[in-house]
Amino acid sequence: MKIKVLGTGLTKFGELWNKDLLDLALEASIDAINDSRLTINKIDAVFVGNMIHSKLTNQDQLGALVASSLGIKGASFRIEGACASGGLAVHLAIQSLLSGTYKNVLVVGAEKMTDANVSDISSALMGAGSEAERKAGLTFPALYALMAKAHMAKYGTTRKHLALVSVKNHYHASMNEKAQFPFEVTMEKVLESPIISSPFTLFDASPISDGAGALVLSSESTGEGVFITGSAVATDTVDLSSRKSLLEIAATKEASQQALKQAGVEISDIKVAEVHDCFTIAEILAMEDLGFCKKGMGGEFVRKGYTRLGGKIPVNTSGGLKACGHPVAATGVKQIIEVTHQLQKRAGKRQVNGANIGLTHNVGGSGATVVVHILQT
Amino acid sequence: MSTPAQIWRDHKKLNSYLNKVGELIVWTKIFVAPTGFEHQTPYLVGIVDFGDQKMPLQIVDCSEEDLKVNQKVKIVIRKIGKAKAEDIIEYGLKAKPI
Fold first, then answer.
1. Could you say which of B25, B31, B56 has the minimum Cβ distance to residue A138?
2. Host domain of residue A9
3. How far apart are the first and last CA of chain A?
4. Do A197 and B56 touch (CB under 8 A)?
5. Domain extents for chain B?
6. Tens digits of per-residue pLDDT, A258-308?
7. Does the residue A183 lie in any domain?
8. Contact A145/B at CB under 8 A
9. Are A362 and A83 in contact (CB under 8 A)?
10. What is the nearest CA distance from B66 to chain A, expressed in angstroms?
11. Has residue A56 been placed in a domain?
Protein backbone atom coordinates (compact mmCIF):
# COMPACT_ATOMS: atom_id res chain seq x y z
CA MET A 1 0.00 0.00 0.00
CA LYS A 2 1.28 3.46 -0.92
CA ILE A 3 -1.17 6.34 -0.59
CA LYS A 4 0.25 9.84 -0.87
CA VAL A 5 -0.72 12.60 1.58
CA LEU A 6 -1.06 15.48 -0.89
CA GLY A 7 -2.37 18.14 1.46
CA THR A 8 -3.30 18.86 5.08
CA GLY A 9 -5.56 21.44 6.75
CA LEU A 10 -6.23 21.92 10.45
CA THR A 11 -8.28 24.48 12.37
CA LYS A 12 -7.42 25.74 15.82
CA PHE A 13 -8.85 23.36 18.47
CA GLY A 14 -10.78 24.85 21.38
CA GLU A 15 -13.98 26.65 22.33
CA LEU A 16 -14.66 28.35 19.00
CA TRP A 17 -17.88 30.23 19.71
CA ASN A 18 -18.01 32.08 16.39
CA LYS A 19 -17.76 28.96 14.19
CA ASP A 20 -20.26 26.20 13.50
CA LEU A 21 -19.56 22.67 12.25
CA LEU A 22 -19.69 23.61 8.57
CA ASP A 23 -17.38 26.63 9.09
CA LEU A 24 -14.82 24.36 10.73
CA ALA A 25 -15.12 21.58 8.11
CA LEU A 26 -14.78 24.05 5.23
CA GLU A 27 -11.84 25.93 6.76
CA ALA A 28 -9.85 22.69 7.18
CA SER A 29 -10.94 21.38 3.75
CA ILE A 30 -9.98 24.54 1.84
CA ASP A 31 -6.58 24.62 3.57
CA ALA A 32 -6.00 20.95 2.69
CA ILE A 33 -7.03 21.41 -0.95
CA ASN A 34 -4.83 24.51 -1.31
CA ASP A 35 -1.93 22.63 0.29
CA SER A 36 -2.42 19.77 -2.22
CA ARG A 37 -2.25 22.20 -5.18
CA LEU A 38 -5.11 20.28 -6.79
CA THR A 39 -8.10 22.11 -8.26
CA ILE A 40 -11.54 21.27 -6.82
CA ASN A 41 -12.57 19.36 -9.95
CA LYS A 42 -9.78 16.83 -9.30
CA ILE A 43 -11.37 15.72 -5.99
CA ASP A 44 -13.37 12.58 -6.77
CA ALA A 45 -14.97 11.91 -3.38
CA VAL A 46 -15.40 13.35 0.12
CA PHE A 47 -15.34 11.30 3.35
CA VAL A 48 -16.63 13.15 6.41
CA GLY A 49 -15.99 11.70 9.86
CA ASN A 50 -18.41 12.94 12.53
CA MET A 51 -19.86 11.41 15.69
CA ILE A 52 -22.42 13.52 17.54
CA HIS A 53 -23.54 16.41 15.34
CA SER A 54 -26.89 14.92 14.41
CA LYS A 55 -27.64 14.27 18.12
CA LEU A 56 -26.83 17.81 19.20
CA THR A 57 -28.44 19.58 16.24
CA ASN A 58 -30.80 18.19 13.61
CA GLN A 59 -28.34 18.20 10.74
CA ASP A 60 -27.67 14.92 8.96
CA GLN A 61 -26.22 14.10 5.55
CA LEU A 62 -22.93 15.75 6.42
CA GLY A 63 -21.14 14.15 3.46
CA ALA A 64 -23.30 15.99 0.96
CA LEU A 65 -23.38 19.14 3.07
CA VAL A 66 -19.58 19.49 3.13
CA ALA A 67 -18.99 18.31 -0.47
CA SER A 68 -21.64 20.53 -2.03
CA SER A 69 -20.48 23.56 -0.03
CA LEU A 70 -17.06 23.06 -1.63
CA GLY A 71 -18.61 22.69 -5.08
CA ILE A 72 -17.69 19.00 -5.28
CA LYS A 73 -20.24 16.93 -7.20
CA GLY A 74 -18.62 13.51 -6.81
CA ALA A 75 -19.39 10.89 -4.16
CA SER A 76 -19.76 11.92 -0.52
CA PHE A 77 -20.05 9.96 2.72
CA ARG A 78 -20.44 10.47 6.47
CA ILE A 79 -18.63 7.94 8.65
CA GLU A 80 -19.31 7.26 12.33
CA GLY A 81 -17.29 5.13 14.75
CA ALA A 82 -17.40 7.18 17.96
CA CYS A 83 -14.04 8.82 18.75
CA ALA A 84 -12.48 6.75 15.94
CA SER A 85 -14.75 8.36 13.31
CA GLY A 86 -11.83 10.35 11.86
CA GLY A 87 -9.49 7.36 11.64
CA LEU A 88 -12.25 5.24 10.10
CA ALA A 89 -12.92 7.95 7.49
CA VAL A 90 -9.22 7.89 6.55
CA HIS A 91 -9.24 4.08 6.36
CA LEU A 92 -12.31 4.00 4.09
CA ALA A 93 -10.91 6.78 1.90
CA ILE A 94 -7.74 4.70 1.46
CA GLN A 95 -9.77 1.60 0.54
CA SER A 96 -11.62 3.63 -2.12
CA LEU A 97 -8.28 4.70 -3.61
CA LEU A 98 -6.89 1.17 -3.49
CA SER A 99 -10.00 -0.14 -5.26
CA GLY A 100 -9.20 2.19 -8.15
CA THR A 101 -12.63 3.83 -8.05
CA TYR A 102 -11.20 7.24 -7.11
CA LYS A 103 -7.81 8.88 -7.66
CA ASN A 104 -7.91 11.88 -5.29
CA VAL A 105 -10.14 12.15 -2.23
CA LEU A 106 -10.79 14.61 0.57
CA VAL A 107 -11.12 13.31 4.15
CA VAL A 108 -12.57 15.62 6.79
CA GLY A 109 -12.97 14.97 10.52
CA ALA A 110 -15.05 17.64 12.23
CA GLU A 111 -16.89 18.08 15.51
CA LYS A 112 -18.71 20.97 17.21
CA MET A 113 -19.15 20.12 20.90
CA THR A 114 -19.06 23.29 23.01
CA ASP A 115 -22.60 24.48 22.19
CA ALA A 116 -24.02 21.75 24.50
CA ASN A 117 -23.75 21.55 28.30
CA VAL A 118 -21.51 18.96 30.00
CA SER A 119 -24.31 16.53 31.00
CA ASP A 120 -25.76 16.52 27.48
CA ILE A 121 -22.30 15.96 25.96
CA SER A 122 -21.59 13.14 28.46
CA SER A 123 -24.91 11.51 27.51
CA ALA A 124 -24.33 11.99 23.76
CA LEU A 125 -20.85 10.45 24.00
CA MET A 126 -22.30 7.48 25.94
CA GLY A 127 -24.00 6.54 22.68
CA ALA A 128 -20.65 4.84 22.09
CA GLY A 129 -21.19 2.66 25.17
CA SER A 130 -23.56 -0.25 25.78
CA GLU A 131 -27.17 -0.11 27.01
CA ALA A 132 -26.10 -1.67 30.33
CA GLU A 133 -23.38 0.97 30.75
CA ARG A 134 -25.88 3.78 30.16
CA LYS A 135 -28.33 2.31 32.68
CA ALA A 136 -25.53 2.06 35.27
CA GLY A 137 -24.94 5.81 34.93
CA LEU A 138 -21.46 5.25 33.50
CA THR A 139 -19.58 7.94 31.62
CA PHE A 140 -16.46 7.65 29.45
CA PRO A 141 -14.21 9.00 32.21
CA ALA A 142 -15.70 6.32 34.49
CA LEU A 143 -15.16 3.49 31.97
CA TYR A 144 -11.49 4.41 31.60
CA ALA A 145 -11.28 4.91 35.40
CA LEU A 146 -12.32 1.26 35.78
CA MET A 147 -9.48 0.25 33.44
CA ALA A 148 -7.07 2.49 35.37
CA LYS A 149 -8.04 0.95 38.71
CA ALA A 150 -7.62 -2.57 37.33
CA HIS A 151 -4.18 -1.63 35.92
CA MET A 152 -3.12 -0.01 39.22
CA ALA A 153 -4.18 -3.08 41.21
CA LYS A 154 -2.46 -5.57 38.90
CA TYR A 155 0.76 -3.76 37.91
CA GLY A 156 1.32 -1.15 40.60
CA THR A 157 0.71 1.76 38.22
CA THR A 158 0.39 4.86 40.41
CA ARG A 159 -1.62 8.06 40.44
CA LYS A 160 1.62 9.87 39.56
CA HIS A 161 2.23 7.66 36.50
CA LEU A 162 -1.16 8.76 35.19
CA ALA A 163 -0.48 12.43 35.94
CA LEU A 164 2.87 12.31 34.10
CA VAL A 165 1.04 11.62 30.83
CA SER A 166 -0.93 14.82 31.28
CA VAL A 167 2.17 16.87 32.23
CA LYS A 168 4.10 15.55 29.22
CA ASN A 169 1.28 16.18 26.74
CA HIS A 170 0.74 19.72 28.04
CA TYR A 171 4.49 20.33 27.55
CA HIS A 172 4.17 19.24 23.90
CA ALA A 173 1.02 21.36 23.42
CA SER A 174 2.88 24.43 24.72
CA MET A 175 4.74 24.31 21.38
CA ASN A 176 1.60 23.86 19.25
CA GLU A 177 -0.33 27.02 18.36
CA LYS A 178 -3.32 24.92 17.17
CA ALA A 179 -3.69 23.31 20.61
CA GLN A 180 -6.66 24.05 22.88
CA PHE A 181 -4.34 24.28 25.91
CA PRO A 182 -0.97 25.56 24.64
CA PHE A 183 0.60 25.77 28.11
CA GLU A 184 2.36 23.57 30.63
CA VAL A 185 0.86 22.20 33.84
CA THR A 186 2.59 20.89 36.95
CA MET A 187 2.16 17.49 38.58
CA GLU A 188 0.55 19.25 41.58
CA LYS A 189 -2.01 20.95 39.34
CA VAL A 190 -3.04 17.57 37.84
CA LEU A 191 -3.23 15.81 41.22
CA GLU A 192 -5.09 18.62 42.99
CA SER A 193 -7.74 19.39 40.36
CA PRO A 194 -11.31 18.16 41.10
CA ILE A 195 -12.05 14.42 40.90
CA ILE A 196 -14.37 13.54 37.99
CA SER A 197 -14.38 9.77 38.44
CA SER A 198 -11.93 8.19 40.88
CA PRO A 199 -8.95 7.96 40.39
CA PHE A 200 -9.17 10.60 37.61
CA THR A 201 -9.11 14.32 38.17
CA LEU A 202 -10.17 16.82 35.53
CA PHE A 203 -6.58 16.93 34.23
CA ASP A 204 -6.58 13.20 33.44
CA ALA A 205 -9.30 13.81 30.87
CA SER A 206 -9.28 15.20 27.35
CA PRO A 207 -11.51 18.26 27.03
CA ILE A 208 -14.73 19.04 25.15
CA SER A 209 -13.58 20.76 21.95
CA ASP A 210 -14.50 22.20 18.59
CA GLY A 211 -12.25 21.65 15.60
CA ALA A 212 -11.67 20.04 12.23
CA GLY A 213 -8.87 18.44 10.26
CA ALA A 214 -8.73 17.57 6.57
CA LEU A 215 -6.49 15.57 4.27
CA VAL A 216 -6.21 15.22 0.52
CA LEU A 217 -5.11 11.67 -0.26
CA SER A 218 -4.06 10.35 -3.65
CA SER A 219 -3.33 7.02 -5.25
CA GLU A 220 -0.73 8.89 -7.31
CA SER A 221 2.37 7.54 -5.55
CA THR A 222 5.26 8.97 -7.53
CA GLY A 223 7.80 11.55 -6.36
CA GLU A 224 8.88 12.65 -2.91
CA GLY A 225 6.47 13.01 -0.04
CA VAL A 226 4.71 11.32 2.85
CA PHE A 227 2.89 8.07 2.19
CA ILE A 228 0.43 6.00 4.20
CA THR A 229 1.79 2.47 3.98
CA GLY A 230 -0.40 0.70 6.53
CA SER A 231 -4.06 1.12 7.51
CA ALA A 232 -5.97 -1.34 9.68
CA VAL A 233 -9.14 -1.45 11.78
CA ALA A 234 -10.01 -3.95 14.52
CA THR A 235 -13.20 -4.40 16.53
CA ASP A 236 -14.11 -5.63 20.01
CA THR A 237 -17.27 -5.61 22.14
CA VAL A 238 -18.92 -2.22 22.71
CA ASP A 239 -19.51 -3.19 26.36
CA LEU A 240 -16.32 -2.95 28.45
CA SER A 241 -17.28 -5.62 30.99
CA SER A 242 -17.87 -8.19 28.21
CA ARG A 243 -14.19 -8.16 27.17
CA LYS A 244 -11.73 -10.86 28.09
CA SER A 245 -9.52 -8.43 30.03
CA LEU A 246 -9.74 -4.92 31.48
CA LEU A 247 -5.95 -4.67 31.40
CA GLU A 248 -5.57 -4.21 27.66
CA ILE A 249 -7.33 -2.93 24.57
CA ALA A 250 -7.10 -6.07 22.45
CA ALA A 251 -8.21 -4.29 19.25
CA THR A 252 -5.11 -2.05 19.53
CA LYS A 253 -2.88 -5.14 19.33
CA GLU A 254 -4.79 -6.56 16.39
CA ALA A 255 -4.96 -3.33 14.34
CA SER A 256 -1.33 -2.36 14.97
CA GLN A 257 0.03 -5.78 14.06
CA GLN A 258 -1.92 -5.72 10.78
CA ALA A 259 -0.87 -2.16 9.91
CA LEU A 260 2.82 -2.82 10.69
CA LYS A 261 2.72 -5.97 8.56
CA GLN A 262 1.19 -4.07 5.63
CA ALA A 263 3.92 -1.45 5.89
CA GLY A 264 6.65 -4.05 6.32
CA VAL A 265 8.08 -2.38 9.43
CA GLU A 266 8.52 -3.27 13.11
CA ILE A 267 7.25 -1.28 16.09
CA SER A 268 10.91 -0.54 16.94
CA ASP A 269 11.22 1.32 13.59
CA ILE A 270 8.60 3.92 14.63
CA LYS A 271 10.19 7.31 15.36
CA VAL A 272 7.09 9.32 16.29
CA ALA A 273 3.55 8.34 17.33
CA GLU A 274 0.20 9.99 17.96
CA VAL A 275 -1.85 7.75 20.26
CA HIS A 276 -5.37 8.00 21.67
CA ASP A 277 -4.92 9.54 25.15
CA CYS A 278 -8.59 10.35 25.78
CA PHE A 279 -7.70 9.68 29.43
CA THR A 280 -4.21 9.33 30.87
CA ILE A 281 -4.51 5.55 31.36
CA ALA A 282 -5.31 5.19 27.65
CA GLU A 283 -1.80 6.37 26.68
CA ILE A 284 -0.23 3.93 29.15
CA LEU A 285 -2.34 1.07 27.73
CA ALA A 286 -1.43 2.18 24.18
CA MET A 287 2.32 2.01 24.96
CA GLU A 288 1.90 -1.58 26.09
CA ASP A 289 -0.64 -2.79 23.52
CA LEU A 290 1.20 -1.24 20.56
CA GLY A 291 4.34 -3.01 21.82
CA PHE A 292 6.56 -0.02 22.70
CA CYS A 293 7.03 -1.62 26.15
CA LYS A 294 6.07 -4.78 28.05
CA LYS A 295 2.59 -5.26 29.54
CA GLY A 296 2.37 -3.52 32.89
CA MET A 297 5.41 -1.29 32.25
CA GLY A 298 3.57 1.59 30.52
CA GLY A 299 3.64 3.86 33.57
CA GLU A 300 7.40 3.45 34.04
CA PHE A 301 7.96 3.90 30.28
CA VAL A 302 6.34 7.33 30.55
CA ARG A 303 8.11 8.19 33.84
CA LYS A 304 11.53 7.54 32.31
CA GLY A 305 10.86 10.23 29.72
CA TYR A 306 11.05 7.91 26.70
CA THR A 307 7.85 9.39 25.26
CA ARG A 308 8.79 13.04 25.77
CA LEU A 309 10.21 15.14 22.92
CA GLY A 310 13.91 14.21 22.83
CA GLY A 311 13.18 10.72 24.21
CA LYS A 312 13.55 7.50 22.23
CA ILE A 313 9.94 7.50 20.96
CA PRO A 314 8.19 10.88 21.31
CA VAL A 315 4.44 10.29 21.74
CA ASN A 316 1.72 12.86 21.11
CA THR A 317 3.91 15.74 20.00
CA SER A 318 0.69 17.62 19.10
CA GLY A 319 -0.24 17.61 22.79
CA GLY A 320 -2.47 14.58 22.27
CA LEU A 321 -6.18 14.52 22.96
CA LYS A 322 -5.45 15.78 26.48
CA ALA A 323 -3.86 19.12 25.63
CA CYS A 324 -4.31 19.66 21.86
CA GLY A 325 -8.02 18.98 22.41
CA HIS A 326 -10.47 16.26 21.37
CA PRO A 327 -13.16 17.31 18.88
CA VAL A 328 -13.98 13.61 18.65
CA ALA A 329 -14.11 12.92 14.90
CA ALA A 330 -11.37 15.47 14.15
CA THR A 331 -8.87 13.61 16.33
CA GLY A 332 -8.13 10.68 14.01
CA VAL A 333 -7.47 13.06 11.12
CA LYS A 334 -5.40 15.45 13.26
CA GLN A 335 -3.15 12.55 14.30
CA ILE A 336 -2.32 11.82 10.63
CA ILE A 337 -1.70 15.56 10.04
CA GLU A 338 0.69 15.80 13.00
CA VAL A 339 2.71 12.75 11.90
CA THR A 340 2.71 14.01 8.27
CA HIS A 341 4.12 17.36 9.44
CA GLN A 342 6.76 15.54 11.51
CA LEU A 343 7.78 13.49 8.46
CA GLN A 344 7.83 16.65 6.31
CA LYS A 345 10.03 18.40 8.95
CA ARG A 346 7.27 21.04 9.30
CA ALA A 347 6.67 20.54 13.05
CA GLY A 348 8.62 23.62 14.20
CA LYS A 349 9.72 23.62 17.84
CA ARG A 350 8.28 20.17 18.43
CA GLN A 351 10.11 18.57 15.47
CA VAL A 352 11.36 15.04 16.18
CA ASN A 353 14.85 14.67 14.71
CA GLY A 354 15.17 11.93 12.11
CA ALA A 355 11.44 11.18 11.98
CA ASN A 356 10.92 9.05 8.87
CA ILE A 357 8.36 6.46 10.03
CA GLY A 358 5.35 7.33 12.20
CA LEU A 359 2.25 5.68 13.66
CA THR A 360 -1.23 6.90 14.55
CA HIS A 361 -3.61 5.11 16.94
CA ASN A 362 -7.27 6.15 17.14
CA VAL A 363 -9.77 4.47 19.51
CA GLY A 364 -13.57 4.51 19.47
CA GLY A 365 -15.52 4.04 22.70
CA SER A 366 -13.72 2.16 25.46
CA GLY A 367 -11.84 0.12 22.82
CA ALA A 368 -14.52 -1.32 20.53
CA THR A 369 -13.00 0.29 17.42
CA VAL A 370 -9.28 0.82 16.88
CA VAL A 371 -7.69 2.31 13.75
CA VAL A 372 -3.92 2.27 13.24
CA HIS A 373 -2.04 3.96 10.41
CA ILE A 374 1.64 3.82 9.46
CA LEU A 375 3.20 6.75 7.58
CA GLN A 376 6.58 6.84 5.84
CA THR A 377 8.62 9.23 3.75
CA MET B 1 -34.06 8.39 28.83
CA SER B 2 -35.94 5.36 27.53
CA THR B 3 -39.32 5.41 25.78
CA PRO B 4 -42.36 3.57 27.29
CA ALA B 5 -41.98 0.72 24.77
CA GLN B 6 -38.27 0.28 25.61
CA ILE B 7 -39.05 0.29 29.34
CA TRP B 8 -41.86 -2.28 28.82
CA ARG B 9 -39.47 -4.59 26.93
CA ASP B 10 -36.63 -4.20 29.43
CA HIS B 11 -38.79 -4.66 32.54
CA LYS B 12 -39.82 -8.13 31.34
CA LYS B 13 -36.17 -9.27 31.54
CA LEU B 14 -35.38 -8.02 35.05
CA ASN B 15 -36.89 -11.01 36.87
CA SER B 16 -34.24 -13.48 35.72
CA TYR B 17 -31.44 -11.41 37.30
CA LEU B 18 -32.99 -10.85 40.75
CA ASN B 19 -30.85 -11.97 43.72
CA LYS B 20 -28.04 -13.23 41.47
CA VAL B 21 -24.80 -13.18 43.49
CA GLY B 22 -21.45 -12.14 42.06
CA GLU B 23 -18.09 -10.60 42.95
CA LEU B 24 -17.18 -6.96 42.52
CA ILE B 25 -13.90 -6.84 40.59
CA VAL B 26 -13.36 -3.08 40.17
CA TRP B 27 -15.28 0.16 40.84
CA THR B 28 -15.13 3.94 40.46
CA LYS B 29 -16.87 6.84 42.21
CA ILE B 30 -18.49 9.16 39.66
CA PHE B 31 -18.64 12.90 40.39
CA VAL B 32 -19.61 14.19 36.92
CA ALA B 33 -22.76 12.41 35.73
CA PRO B 34 -24.65 12.12 32.44
CA THR B 35 -28.13 13.63 32.02
CA GLY B 36 -30.65 12.02 34.39
CA PHE B 37 -28.07 10.93 36.97
CA GLU B 38 -26.88 14.34 38.22
CA HIS B 39 -28.91 14.14 41.44
CA GLN B 40 -27.12 10.95 42.52
CA THR B 41 -23.53 12.24 42.47
CA PRO B 42 -21.22 11.06 43.79
CA TYR B 43 -22.21 7.44 43.12
CA LEU B 44 -20.40 4.11 42.79
CA VAL B 45 -20.36 1.97 39.65
CA GLY B 46 -18.48 -1.29 39.32
CA ILE B 47 -18.02 -4.37 37.18
CA VAL B 48 -19.47 -7.49 38.77
CA ASP B 49 -18.39 -11.01 37.78
CA PHE B 50 -21.24 -13.56 37.94
CA GLY B 51 -19.12 -16.43 36.59
CA ASP B 52 -21.14 -16.84 33.39
CA GLN B 53 -21.05 -13.11 32.58
CA LYS B 54 -19.70 -9.76 33.77
CA MET B 55 -21.94 -6.70 34.09
CA PRO B 56 -21.55 -2.98 34.80
CA LEU B 57 -23.79 -2.09 37.76
CA GLN B 58 -24.31 0.75 40.20
CA ILE B 59 -23.29 -0.31 43.70
CA VAL B 60 -25.84 0.86 46.28
CA ASP B 61 -26.60 0.80 50.02
CA CYS B 62 -22.95 1.18 51.02
CA SER B 63 -20.09 3.66 51.16
CA GLU B 64 -16.84 3.23 49.25
CA GLU B 65 -15.01 2.34 52.47
CA ASP B 66 -17.16 -0.81 52.78
CA LEU B 67 -15.98 -2.17 49.44
CA LYS B 68 -13.09 -4.49 48.71
CA VAL B 69 -11.96 -6.43 45.61
CA ASN B 70 -13.94 -9.68 45.27
CA GLN B 71 -16.66 -8.23 47.54
CA LYS B 72 -19.79 -10.40 47.29
CA VAL B 73 -22.77 -8.46 45.95
CA LYS B 74 -26.32 -9.37 44.89
CA ILE B 75 -28.57 -7.87 42.25
CA VAL B 76 -31.47 -5.69 43.39
CA ILE B 77 -34.07 -3.71 41.45
CA ARG B 78 -33.97 0.06 41.78
CA LYS B 79 -35.07 3.21 39.99
CA ILE B 80 -32.81 4.16 37.10
CA GLY B 81 -32.02 7.85 36.73
CA LYS B 82 -34.61 10.51 37.47
CA ALA B 83 -37.94 10.49 35.67
CA LYS B 84 -39.72 13.79 34.99
CA ALA B 85 -43.25 14.17 36.45
CA GLU B 86 -44.95 13.02 33.24
CA ASP B 87 -42.49 10.16 32.47
CA ILE B 88 -42.81 6.47 33.27
CA ILE B 89 -40.50 5.57 36.16
CA GLU B 90 -37.82 3.24 34.86
CA TYR B 91 -36.54 0.39 37.03
CA GLY B 92 -33.39 -1.61 36.43
CA LEU B 93 -30.58 -3.62 37.96
CA LYS B 94 -28.14 -2.47 40.63
CA ALA B 95 -25.97 -4.38 43.08
CA LYS B 96 -25.63 -4.21 46.86
CA PRO B 97 -22.94 -5.74 49.07
CA ILE B 98 -23.93 -8.82 51.11
1. B56
2. 3-116+207-376
3. 13
4. no
5. 4-97
6. 999 999 999 999 999 999 999 999 999 999 999 999 999 999 999 999 999
7. no
8. yes
9. yes
10. 16
11. yes
